[in-house]
Design a protein that fits this description.
The complex is a heterodimer of chains A (276) and B (283).
Chain A: H1 6-24, E1 28-32, H2 37-50, E2 54-58, H3 66-78, E3 82-85, H4 89-98, H5 104-125, E4 128-132, H6 136-141, E5 154-155, H7 162-172, H8 176-179, H9 193-197, H10 201-213, H11 218-223, H12 228-240
Parallel strand pairs in A: 1-2, 1-4, 2-3, 4-5
Chain B: E1 2-8, H1 16-32, E2 37-39, H2 54-57, H3 67-72, E3 77-85, E4 91-99, E5 102-108, H4 120-123, E6 133-135, E7 138-144, H5 146-149, H6 151-159, E8 164-169, E9 176-177, E10 181-182, H7 183-199, E11 202-207, E12 211-212, E13 215-216, E14 222-224, E15 230-233, E16 240-246, H8 249-257, H9 266-275
Parallel strand pairs in B: 1-2, 2-3, 7-8, 8-11
Antiparallel strand pairs in B: 1-16, 3-4, 4-5, 6-7, 9-10, 11-14, 12-13, 14-15
Classes of the chains: A alpha/beta (276), B alpha/beta (283).
Amino acid sequence: MINLNCELTKKLLINFILDQKQKTGAESMVFGLSGGLDSTVTAFLLKEALGKNVLALILPYGDWTKKDVEDALMIARELNLNYEIYSLDQLAVQYFEDMQVGDRLRQGNFVSRLRANVVFDFSKKLKAIVAGSSNKTELLMGYGTWYGDLAASFYLLGDLYKTQVRILAKYLGVPESILSKTPTAGLWPGQTDEDEMGITYEELDKILYLLVDKRKRVEEVVNRGFADNKVRKVVNQVFASAFKRKIPTIPKLSQRTIGADFLYLKEYRLRDSEED
Amino acid sequence: MFKLGVAQINPELNDLKSNKEKHLSLLERAISEKVNVLVFPELSLTGYYLLDGVAEASLPLNSPFLNDFKKISEKISFSLGMIEKGTDYNPYISQLFFEDGEIKGVHRKVYLPTHGIFEDLKYFARGKKVEVINSHHGKTGMLICRDFMHLSLNLLLYLQGVNVLLLSSAIPVRGLDKEKGFSVKESVEYLLRSLANYLNVYIAFSSRGGFEEGIAFMGSSLILNNYGYIVREGVFLEEDFLTYPVNLEEIYKKNITFPLLRGEDLLMIKENMRFIGNDKPEL
């Protein structure tokens, strides 16, 4: 079942951060620090890899996020992180009033994208790249705002299920107060991931692990004691959210089409011919 | 006695010039440490995931770019990896063996994995030949990554009397596990320990480190003696340099005490091979 080799995982992720910095030529990295578990783990790893060359952006909206802001500040201070704090209240409220946006999901997504705007603006200012904190559970379920919190140069924790992020967090020494927090996307007051998805992370991760990592069929997962309707709901959600994990679809017209048959790694560069 | 070495490097993708500099400086280091045979990883001159960049990164065997390697091979024997532009105008994943100022042997990767994260057969042609090289340091066989996981190719080298296996890899880290570390490393160690012991060969396994996009390569190179023991081990992920003194007389000693090879019945094997696969395949 799901476990984690924390020592090797930490080494791999820290080496990965350094490799990304070197290959992109970035001078530093920026990331959004919410005070939740994922961004805190990201903070610990970035700080250890990059030291001073990382900036945490704490970008609250609404008075109901006070506790999260305090947690984020606590982490920033504990890790001696460079950070900026900027409230999105004024920007967001202005728009919501002008456009009469009352729907909480629209509001939440809008704020998430505002946050991405600020993070990317700082990345330009600092010649930095943006580290994303989304985990494998969220990415598979599409539980994130497209071009909002999902906007990033890389997802540091993108191959770790939420329960594995928790294991790694303990290993890294993340404070108990963060570990014991209820996971939330923070889109509206009182929102929690588990309520909204209708399943606990513990159960969800087990189902996803069997389906994805172990390539089990739905029936096989159900036979292991998971409710049929739950498993099917998860499967449907994984495929329905595929659009958030891929580049936008391009209708193929030419001989070589981006994403289809124009295939290079991001780090590929053309060099002078060796035959000259 | 001779000294066997492994250069565990992290090549820059498609940067043949800087990779060549790295090779030459490690060869100089090896010479200064009196290493006689040095092995570089799979595609050590080019990097692994070239994808649509395969043609740009390929070189014919007569390319002047390789002259520096020929020259330095007057002082040391070594194997390096590159994309070979074949005289048949096909691209191959090749491992070149340099000795005495020339390319003494070429192995073209035979088994090209094309599943999951692997796309070798999409971009490369298959090698068709497995041949032992008569080096100054024993009969030497080269295999590239997936090749050595096929027992068939090891058997071909074994029946040609191979003494030293030079294995070159670019193995993506996967299957991180709490107890086992990561599954692919464990399985390679099992395999190589058995091969070294039962084929009575020394093995230098050169496995690249570093990243290409999100893929990490495991490093963790190995040198094994002919009793199946791991005698040197490279670090995880990063670059490393291993050396080990080899005594081919140990192969003779083991052949006296545990004579497997001379017990082989080549004629019987050949005869059986004629029949295997002759049945009509089920469609």
